[in-house]
Every structure is written in structure tokens, then in C-alpha cells.
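Work Package 3 (structural annotation) set out to generate three-dimensional models for the target panel prioritized at the project kickoff. During this period the team completed the workflow that converts sequence records into C-alpha cells, so that structures can be stored uniformly alongside our sequence database. As a representative example, we reproduce one entry of 428 residues exactly as it appears in the project archive.
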Amino acid sequence: MPEAPADSECAAQFRDKVVDELIERGEIVSKEVEGAMRKVERHKFAPEATLEDAYKPYNAVVTKRNEHGNAVSSVSAPQIQAFMLEQARIRPGMRVLEIGSGGLNAAYLAELVGDVGEVTTVDIDPEVTDRAARLLAEAGYPDVRVILADAIEGVPAHAPYDVIMVTVGAWDIPPAWVQQLAEDGRLVVPLRIRGLQRSVAFQREANRLVSTSVRICGFVPMQGPGAHDSQFLLVTGTDEIALRFDDGLPAEPNLLDNAVLSPRAETWTGVTVKRGEPIDMLQMYMATVMPGFCLMSVDKDLDSGIVAPWNKRFSMAAVDGPNFAYITPRLTEDEQFFEYGVHALGPDGPEFAAKIADHVRTWDQEHRGGPGPRIAVYPAGTPDDRIPELPGGRVIDKDHCRVTLSWPSTTTAAGDQGTLHHTTEQGE
């Protein structure tokens, strides 16, 4: 049934309201992205949701769940779609590949490339591609190519691409994605780095990729051969305290068997952040410099008080031989700020806590409010002496590539970060 005029007018009002808010927040900065997001009727790609829910600026609409109830496909939140489109810098006439279909984002891309450009969208799930093709046709975008395939191989038939935009969470960057980019092409990908997901805009430079923008995000993970599972280490032998490692367990995990028998050492750093201030760059910095970086969660039903993080679902943590530690905040006396501290358990707990606390202070003194990390991607097997970011940065080896993170010193005033990065929940 066609929309009634009143429904169409109401949808347009919702659409204008969310675009106005995203402009005010600095998520939309170009007239091109503004025009596309005002024109494309978002709700037609999320028929499962009410108009109000479809246009909530920071909420995704889940369109498919697996047998465990986990989301495997969704329409991303307008805020995330807006800043990723800005990261991509799409212009009329470009050839664009979207990896991970849903329909809506492909419609935005079609508006941005115009009549002389090309948009191809690919997904491994036939239900997803069938749905995307149907919704795109109904919304007036029949020229978007919708392809059912394993996106780990890209879509070579229509390469090279000026932009490849990935709209599923990726742990690795397959060679095909780099090879199918134009010589100066851009890849925008929600890349998982040591358990933290960031939307990274990369510029191709010969056989490597160099970041131009890094934003916090959240996407459902890739399926098929591109999927990657984290590994968990249960510190107490039960589900009470779980350490999640994204790049393999410690070499000798059994060394932690007696860590919880040691008294908990606590060190406070003096580093404070205002309530609501972004901490995504602190997370990335600690993931870069902390040895044995992982993420800690505590089962609230089994919690015996051995550890005491502010956020039981998510805490930055690290392992060093028989010791483990985690970073946690506490409210200052006036309840306007959080101070960050380190708790450590193990025979060398006080020393380990002090070492990590020094890293937090270094971030505060040298990198807080700065431009964030420079991320580069090299083919797997590239020797260390061919990676200019080393030894000043950290290299993370994945199946198909080597990812490096290096940190320039602060070049902007502390506090500017709030306008550059999406706010994350304090206590993480």
C-alpha cells in the first residue's frame, strides 16, 4: 500500500529533525551527505520499526537475528551512517563497493555518486541480498547492483573501486579489498583492533593503507570465512571473571591460576575526565601500549568481589605472566569527574599496577586531545624493517595483514577531542 500523505509528511519531519541534529553535533559536515540523508526515505528500509524508532539518531534497527538471538543484520544508526559517509568522501561519478548489504546505505551511496557513478553492494546471506534488492527497487534505486557472494574476495568484476565501504565488523583486511581499490582509492572499514572496533578511513598508498580518520563504532561481525572469534580465559575457573583476547591467549595462561589468591593492589593515577567526556582514544592508546591487552567482564550473578570494576561488562585489562590488571574509574568527591586507577592481582601486583598507571599518565600528558593514532596496514609477511612506523608504534599481526598503530604527540588543546570523536560510556 502506498503511504498516506500524512504519513509521508510525518516521515519527512522525522528525517529533517535527525539530519538537523547530526549537523548540530558535527556528524554531518558536507552538503552532499546532508542532501542524501534528507532525500532517502530511511523508514522504507526499516519496515520492522515504527517511524519514531526508524529515525532515532543513535539507534540501529535489527533486521535479522540468529538462532541464539544475536543480531546478524541491521540498519545502522543515522549517526554512524553519516560519519562513515563523510569519512568516505564520495563524489559524483565514483565507482563504489559496499560490503554488507541492507539497502539503505546503498541508496545513500547512489545519491552521492549520481547518475554517472556506480554502486555495487554484496553480502553472503541470501535473505539479506533479497531484502536489499527488493527495498532498493521499491525506493527508486533499481540500478544498484546487489550481489550474493562471500565479500572476502570483494567483487572483481566491477573493480577498481574509488571507495570500498564495509558495513560489517571486520577483524582482518583481505588482500582483495586492497587490490580492488583504485590507486588512490579509499577503504572505510569497521576494523576490530585488540577487541576495540573503530571505523577507520584508509587511503591507499601503493600496497599499504594509511588512516585519515578513526571513529568509534559498533557493527555486527562478518560471517563466513572472514569471521573471527575471540578467546576467553576464565581467571577463577568459573565464569565469574572472563578475560577476552582478540589476538590469541597468553603463551602460558596457567600462570594466572593463583593470581586471585594475592591481595588486590590499587593505584590511582590523578588523571580525571569530565562525566560524558569521550575516552575512545584512551582505550586505543592503552590497547597499543599495554602488554597482554584484553577486555575483562564480570558475571554479576557470580561476583564475589575479587575484582571491583566500575563497569562489570567491559573493562580494559592486561596480563603479564602470573599477574593481571584492569583499569577502572571512580567518581571524584564533587561527582563531576572520574579519576582513573588500576587494580592488579598477582605476585607482582603493585609493580604491574604502577606500570599501567604510568601509561595512563603518559596518554594524559602527551596524547590527550591530540589527533589520535596513525594506523597503517601492510600485507602479511612484510618485514619489520619495511614498516616505518616501527619501533615507535605497535604491530598487530592478522591472517592477511599487519596493522600498525603509532601516536603523534598532542597538537591540539586538551578537551578538543570531544568535538572529534563520538562519546563512549564512562567506566569502560
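The domain at 5-226 is CATH 3.40.50.150 (Rossmann fold).
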